[in-house]
Specification:
about 550 residues, Cytochrome Bc1 Complex, Chain D, domain 2, 3 domains, six-stranded mixed β-sheet, 17 helices, about 15% strand
Length: about 550
């Protein structure tokens, strides 16, 4: 018997197929589902019979989120010690960017945060992933939050798992949307807004909006926290007026920022006054989003000199960088220019840095530096230097190892007068162990061998960074101190020589990311400013 299909049903079927196909785009050979084995804590949440969307979300979480948030979602991943603000502990229920009466995030809140990231923190945007994948990730975050709360409730032994599960689900349920007073039709009085700001906001954010004076604030987990510097113009949830109105009305759960019950006239007067403190365009300049970068084809050889006029003749792309340990005194981004010919490819990086930190010869001195990382995976690994079994190719330059920039040995003798005292320290090994400790233990980025200031390294997650062998070091380049900061050039032959080298080929996916170290702000090792993954195309 034939049966007709109603139009409404057909639309639902088509939408379901479209969602499934968008997920399949993500579930390709190099995607997390093929290569990531869930940790035990996560496997117990999604056994083989569980919702496939939840399992997908946990697999994406294991690949993208574990380095910061940890396997159980408690904000204790291997990179957590590098981060400020701290990675969220989902089980606490203290999510900052919410729009509900309860202060707990709706699915739309979580999706918006995943897409946009959180400017002013190390939380990156994931808006380049399909919505179906991000919704699966939302399910995973909720499941981890519930499981974490269940574990906490059961610690005393007073509850069974079923009882704890019922309580956790109830406590962490989002609830109803918050109501924000609409902007009134009458003109806004900025003088009234300023007066309300002085009495309600200035005690933490200061009269000038910089938030520098109040230094005893802590979040609900006991970590130090600082009031937002409005003059920087960077807000975690965005700087749009309706978003600011929501934050003032609801506050930031888990932080000292309370919700303030203003009338519509008062609320919007404060919102408009805040707008006078904000640096125009700062939010847009700080927010990261995945870009497509395309090298310019060069007529001749790739110039090694950063000051060569051929670099000035091509357009550069500004890419924001985010310090993993957030600070207002930061490098905002790098300008990237690219040239290629039939044999080589070159990248010129330029960024503002008011101090030249070129020596690393005392415990409190750190070097400026920069790096580019690459991945040929369809879906690249974590942008935090890859992950287990998913290696990244890294090109690295460090000012303190550049013989044209720094004279490390002479500076060592100035800072440590006893370095050459053969009576006190009779052999070279003992001298290095006493005065150049990182060099003595073989840290690959603290070498005093200046034969190569530009290095090729490989990494598959934290603690795995290692240089290629001398015969595989094919990265060339040069650095130059400019009136505003640094300009450096990396050049490599297109043809790889090492199994881990990136393959530059239009038929292969090419992902690229950038990092800079600011020695003046004590950046070193994993403490740095980074971009997310961008796409490189021919």
């Amino acid at each position: 018997m034939s049966r007709s299909v109603r139009p409404g049903v057909l639309v639902v079927v088509v939408l379901a197929v479209a969602v499934a196909l968008s997920s399949l785009w993500f579930l390709r050979r190099d995607s997390p589902s093929d290569s990531i084995r869930l940790p035990r804590e996560m496997s117990e949440i999604a056994p083989g019979t569980a919702d496939p969307s939840l399992r997908l979300g946990l697999q994406v979480y294991a690949e993208k989120c574990v380095p910061c948030h940890g396997t159980s979602g408690r904000g204790d991943g291997p990179a957590a010690y590098l981060l400020y603000p701290k990675a969220r502990n989902f089980s606490s229920g203290q999510f900052r960017l919410t729009s509900t009466q309860s202060g707990l995030p709706s699915d739309a809140d979580l999706l918006r945060t995943l897409k946009r990231g959180i400017p002013g923190s190390s939380m990156p945007p994931w808006g380049h992933l399909p919505d179906s994948v991000l919704l699966a990730l939302v399910s995973a975050i909720r499941a981890l939050a519930v499981e974490g709360r269940v574990a906490t409730l059961m610690e005393s032994g007073a509850m069974t798992r079923d009882q704890a599960l019922a309580v956790a689900r109830d406590v962490l349920a989002p609830g109803l949307p918050a109501e924000v007073p609409a902007r009134p039709e009458i003109p806004i009085d900025l003088s009234s807004g300023r007066q309300l700001y002085v009495t309600g906001c200035a005690p933490c954010h200061d009269l000038d909006g910089r938030g520098l004076l109040k230094r005893d604030l802590k979040d609900d987990d006991g970590y130090p926290i600082f009031a937002r510097d409005f003059t920087q113009g960077i807000f975690k949830g965005g700087s749009e007026p309706d978003v600011l109105a929501l934050r003032i009305t609801r506050g930031l759960p888990g932080s000292p920022m309370p919700g303030l019950p203003y009338s519509a006239e008062e609320l919007w007067a404060i919102v408009d006054y805040l707008g006078t403190l904000v640096k125009p365009g700062a939010q847009e300049r700080a927010e990261q989003s995945q870009q497509i970068l395309k090298p310019v084809v060069a007529d001749g050889p790739i110039p090694r000199d950063p000051g060569d006029e051929r670099w000035q003749q091509i357009e550069s792309t500004f890419l924001p960088v985010t310090p993993l340990w957030w600070r207002n005194d930061r490098i905002e981004g790098v300008n990237v220019s690219m040239l290629r010919n039939s044999e080589e490819i070159g990248f010129r990086l330029e960024w503002h840095d008011s101090t030249a930190d070129v020596h690393q010869t005392s415990q409190r001195s750190f070097s400026d530096g920069a790096a580019i990382q690459f991945s040929n995976a369809d879906d690249p690994p974590s942008f935090t230097m890859g992950s287990l079994g998913r290696e990244c190719d890294i090109w690295y330059w460090r000012a303190s190892t550049d013989p044209l920039i720094a004279e490390v040995l002479s500076q060592t003798e100035i800072i440590h007068p006893n370095y050459r005292d053969d009576h006190e320290l009779p052999d070279t090994v003992a001298k290095d162990a006493a005065f150049l400790t990182a060099t003595a233990v073989g840290n690959p980025v603290a070498t005093t061998d200046h034969a190569r200031s530009f290095q090729n390294l490989q990494a598959a997650g934290f603690g795995t960074l290692s240089p290629d062998g001398p015969e595989d070091q094919i990265i060339e380049g040069a650095a130059q101190r400019t009136s505003l900061g640094w300009a450096i050039v990396f050049v490599r032959r297109l043809q790889p020589t090492h199994p881990g080298d990136v393959v530059f080929d239009a038929s292969r996916p090419m992902h690229i990311g950038f990092a800079v170290w600011d020695g003046h702000n004590q950046d070193r090792d994993g403490q740095k400013s980074v971009t997310i993954w961008h796409r490189l195309r021919w």
